[in-house]
Design a protein that fits this description.
Elements (H helix, E strand, L loop, with lengths): L6 H17 L2 H9 L5 H14 L17 H13 L7 H14 L2 H12 L5 E4 L15 E5 L2 E9 L9 E7 L10 E7 L5 E6 L8 E12 L3 E2 L5 H14 L4 H17 L1 E2 L2 E2 L4 H29 L7 H23 L29 H7 L10 H11 L4
Parallel strand pairs: 1-4
Antiparallel strand pairs: 2-3, 3-7, 4-5, 5-8, 6-7, 9-10
The site of flavin-adenine dinucleotide has 19 residues, from β1 and α12.
Length: about 400
């Protein structure tokens, strides 16, 4: 594995740093650094800046608007963005459905949807999970029945992140109930404004509305909105999940979190002086830094494998397990570093436009919200137990 940067890489790193220093809006950066959910307006504004620079979809093929960056350059961008808390483009469009469209979609679908993802005209959400069909996704029941040149969709999706903002949803639907579960699923692209769709909020542990239920009642979807062949949706769905898990380790974000813990612990007092001088606290922080470094080198090893033309199998599952465990430990430590100011949690809405000063120093606004939200990190993107099953099957042959 060659991890050294050549001269071109160092120059590129400098270009990325300058771009971020001059182009990342302060309000967007501040929100992301606090670990709060993005606003639609702020996220779209930032994505349009990235797109103007040609950096919206680094992983797409150049012909569809991607970059020809080397693996090292992709690593540099992800790392630099993470270290200044620059949000990544919303994954549902650019990392999930985009690659499905350019890999399995027809020419009309590519021409119609890919530019709209790049310029953030469409905000996408993911309609996979249903009540009773999460880990056992193939058991999903939302039905699509052919009626002339349309499907008529009935059913319910759940845990649909940011559906309240979405213009489009990519949906797994059952088009044949008479065959093995995986063989009767199709992949539809549905306009969220179609009559018969209702979005209902679910408030999470952080008391914020990032999750939703989406109901479909006689929703008419043109047949041309189906990706690939009818009843072959499971193939496209699995392809998408592989992409979802690769980006979920969030190493650069965790490195920024380590820096935040240091900043806060350097300002917070404890009995013996500053928290950053407390041996117990420093030991916990060091343990996390070591684990994060091991994760980073593991990710780099996988990137190196990819750049040498090798294929990954269970590796994304390993990154997902370790990455999300570290994220959870880190936000726990962030809250711990705040001492008593970590406890009086108020959802972020409570801070907007109010006269009273929030409790504690400014840096106390955010960590508890993220700590609570990230309890879900070991569940979403396929729970960590399911990832361990994948590892035990593919690596250990159990
Ligand atoms: C914050 C958040 C955001 C999400 N966003 C989206 C989204 O945008 N779109 C979307 O479609 N879905 C989304 N999800 C849903 C997510 O994909 C599911 O929650 C996840 O796949 C688990 O499914 P489930 O909730 O039905 O739990 P279940 O499948 O019922 O699992 C319950 C528990 O049993 C364990 N378990 C289940 N089966 C096995 C097994 N075979 N072996 C060992 N343990 C097992 C699980 O690990 C878990 O601990 C989101 C979830 C969360 C929490």
């Amino acid at each position: 594995m060659d991890l050294s940067f050549n001269e071109d890489d160092v120059a590129f790193q400098q270009e990325v740093r300058e771009f971020l220093a001059t182009s990342l809006p302060q309000d967007v950066k501040e929100r992301a650094d606090r670990g709060l959910h993005p606003t639609k307006e702020g996220q779209v504004r930032w994505q349009k800046i990235l797109n103007e620079k040609g950096w919206m979809a680094p992983n797409w093929p150049v012909e569809y608007g991607g970059t020809d960056w080397t693996i090292t350059q992709k690593y540099i961008v992800a790392h630099e963005m993470g270290s200044v808390a620059a949000p990544q483009p919303m994954a549902f469009g650019v990392s999930m459905v985009g690659p499905v469209i350019y890999t399995f979609g027809n020419q009309e679908q590519k021409d119609k949807y890919l530019p709209r993802i790049l310029n953030s005209e469409d905000w996408w959400c993911q309609g996979y999970s249903e009540p009773g069909s999460g880990s056992d996704l193939a058991s999903l029941q939302t039905k699509a029945v052919r009626d002339g040149d349309h499907y008529v969709v009935n059913g319910q999706k759940i845990w649909t992140s940011y559906a309240q903002h979405a213009d489009m949803i990519f949906c797994l639907v059952r088009t044949d109930s008479s065959v093995k579960a995986q063989e009767g699923i199709s992949f539809l692209l549905i306009d969220m404004k179609t009559p018969g769709i209702t979005v209902k909020p679910i408030y999470g542990l952080d008391k914020e509305n990032s999750l939703n239920e989406v109901f479909f009642e006689d929703v008419r979807v043109p047949i041309e909105n189906r990706i690939g062949e009818e009843n072959k949706g499971w193939t496209y769905a699995k392809f998408l999940l592989g992409n979802e898990r690769t980006g979920i380790a969030r190493v650069a974000r965790s490195k920024r979190q380590i820096a935040r813990v240091r900043e806060i612990a350097g300002a917070e007092k404890c009995e013996e002086g500053y928290l950053l001088e407390d041996p117990d606290f420093v030991r916990k922080l060091a343990r996390l830094e070591v684990d994060l470094m091991a994760l980073e080198y593991t990710e780099l090893r996988y990137l190196s494998m990819l750049s040498n033309g090798k294929k990954l199998s269970a590796e994304p599952s390993l990154l997902k397990i370790k990455g999300t465990e570290i994220q959870q430990r880190l936000t726990s430590l962030l809250v711990e570093s705040l001492g008593m100011y970590g406890a009086p949690y108020e959802p972020e809405r409570a801070y907007e436009g109010r006269n009273e000063t929030p409790v504690g120093p400014d840096y106390a606004n955010g960590p508890m919200a993220e700590h609570l939200y990230l309890r879900a990190a070991t569940i979403y993107g396929g729970s960590n137990e399911i990832q361990r099953n994948i590892v035990s099957k593919m690596v250990l042959g159990l």
